[in-house]
Amino acid sequence: MIGSGPASERSENTRKSDTMAKKTTSKKQGMSLNTMSLAELQQELQRREKGIRKLERRRERLLEDLAQVDTELASVGALGAAGRIRRRPRNDMNLVDSLATVLKGKTMSVTDVTQAVQKAGYITTAANFRTIVNQALIREKKVFKKVSRGQYTAK
Q1: Residue 64, C-beta contacts closer than 8 angstroms, at least 6 positions apart
Q2: What are the residue ranges spanned by the domains of the chain?
Q3: Average pLDDT, stretch 66-77?
């Protein structure tokens, strides 16, 4: 839907802030605090307090929205312990070590070893993880041995 979402809200809020700033500067243009009457000063204070209340309400709504987004990010595991967005998962062992652990004493196909390493706790966000596993098995000849076509074991 065009014109909805955070970007359009942001631009709408920016326009409101710009309009509010223009009103403040154009309303009493050229007048200093020394030349304003007490009634005008009180009126200006009330106007500014009203603006502050509006901004506080807006801030509260935005904080509620942010808390909801943080909850959604945490539920999919994209939020780290420090509350920052985690871009890339961290694993205790690198892929080659994880594959060697899973394949120790076994012969498995690339698909099976891919599933087994993920069940063992290796986290990946790759769309083509099987291909990455296959490349690692082919590349690391000192660690893995090709038993037959598509079948590998750890040395």
Answers
A1: none
A2: 33-87, 95-154
A3: 81
